[in-house]
Amino acid sequence: MPATKTLSKETITIIKSTVPVLAEHGEVITKRFYEMMFSNHPELLNIFNHAHQKQGKQPKALANTVYAAAMHIDNLEAIIPVVKQIAHKHRSLNIKAEHYPIVGKHLLLAIKDVLGDAATDDIINAWGEAYGIIADVFISVEKEMYEEAAREAGGWKEYRKFVVNEKIKESDVITSFYLKPEDGGNLAKFEPGQYISIKAVIDGEEYTHIRQYSLSDSPGKDYYRISVKREDKRENAPEGIVSNFLHDAVNVGDVLEITSPAGDFVLNMETQLPIVLISGGVGLTPMVSMLKTLADIKPEKEVTYIHAAISGQTHSLQEEVSKIASENKNISTFICYEAPTETDLKAGNYQKEGYIDLPWLQSILKTNQAEFYFCGPVPFMKVINEALTKWGVPKERIHFEFFGPAADL
């Protein structure tokens, strides 16, 4: 952890005393924080995901982070894993050191605005001091990440232009985009499970939109591949502005600006244990990257890949995965369809109808002594996490990735 200034005992005591208040009012404070900050600095709307704001995901994620910082204010080492996870997102979004004073100012204003007289001068001053130290930790970690990304062979700072070399429809809902650097230069390597950010400049939109997409192919190619699900409007969720833009308006030959690969949801290549990959829907993107990498680099590793989709119509990269399994005796694949079509029934191309559950997992897996990686919609991940926990898989062998702000399982 980067060296930091020391907080006084008095400040630590005051911050600790606000923990119950943050537990009760944290989301209200962070929601008000975003309202005030965007009102005074609308240019920041070019960075933040508007949909996550509307759905309350971002305020909740920030509230959880602030709460964790308050809980561990006397031992910030404890939150370093969270700091690094967020720092990867920040680096991918080009969050800079100069943004932190703006955030700090509006966070304090929001605390005062929501708590009123209960937010005494002592509390505001203590939080101002504490925020400065927490911000220094983030800035230091992110500075190192920016420098590392720029130093790496084929690496770059901020955004780089890429040409869409291929656009392939993978299913009714998912399309893959193959991206090559416009300058013809080398590509930075990445670890399977990592993502890139795309900056979308869309006609009719006041602000730019940045979205992060997992890389869906293995490293070592002369392109990056992302496989994007079209997000249609549904209850409690707006239409996906960027996903629809990519599907409808971006074609072969078009240029997109992206940041270099980031993210800490990556394979432990050193483990001696078998590996189990589980995905739901478009959550297959990092899983396929991991699967292909394992097939290339660790062909002796026992790997099981389990995928859940609504049906064969929405199941993407199926042929690619089947080919890998057929060529590697140590790789097993299983498919679960929620509502298989007549075509699926005739083809018999799946092993379970309905949903993944613990009894089925226990029937297809030899043991729970494995490293488990999973990704998909939050309700799906909750079910998988609960099943693995019930089966006795320890936390340190359960790895998962959220598409968007981190939440609780």
Automatic annotation (TrEMBL):
Stored Gene3D superfamilies: Globins (1.10.490.10), Nucleotide-binding domain of ferredoxin-NADP reductase (FNR) module (3.40.50.80), Translation factors (2.40.30.10)
Catalytic activity: 2 nitric oxide + NADPH + 2 O2 = 2 nitrate + NADP(+) + H(+); 2 nitric oxide + NADH + 2 O2 = 2 nitrate + NAD(+) + H(+)
Feature type site, description Influences the redox potential of the prosthetic heme and FAD groups: 89, 401
Keyword Cell membrane: no
One Pfam entry name: Globin
Binding residues annotated for FAD, in chain numbering: 195, 211-214, 402-405
GO annotation (BP), single: response to toxic substance
Catalytic residues identified in the record: 100 (charge relay system), 142 (charge relay system)
Protein name as annotated: Flavohemoprotein
Cross-referenced PROSITE patterns: FAD_FR, GLOBIN
Residues the entry annotates as binding NADP(+): 281-286
Role summary: Is involved in NO detoxification in an aerobic process, termed nitric oxide dioxygenase (NOD) reaction that utilizes O(2) and NAD(P)H to convert NO to nitrate, which protects the bacterium from various noxious nitrogen compounds. Therefore, plays a central role in the inducible response to nitrosative stress.
Site (Involved in heme-bound ligand stabilization and O-O bond activation): 34
Signal peptide region: none
CDD domains named among the record's database cross-references: flavohem_like_fad_nad_binding (cd06184), Yhb1-globin-like (cd14777)
Cofactor(s) in the UniProt record: heme b; FAD
Listed EC numbers: 1.14.12.17
Domains: entry comment: Consists of two distinct domains; an N-terminal heme-containing oxygen-binding domain and a C-terminal reductase domain with binding sites for FAD and NAD(P)H.
Record-linked NCBIfam families: PRK13289.1 (NF009805)
Record bears the keyword Hydrolase: no
List of residues binding heme b: 90
Positions of the UniProt region annotated as Reductase: 154-409
Keywords, ordered alphabetically: Detoxification, Dioxygenase, FAD, Flavoprotein, Heme, Iron, Metal-binding, NAD, NADP, Oxidoreductase, Oxygen transport, Transport
Family of the protein in this entry: In the C-terminal section; belongs to the flavoprotein pyridine nucleotide cytochrome reductase family. Belongs to the globin family. Two-domain flavohemoproteins subfamily.
Molecular functions (GO terms): FAD binding; heme binding; metal ion binding; nitric oxide dioxygenase NAD(P)H activity; oxygen binding; oxygen carrier activity
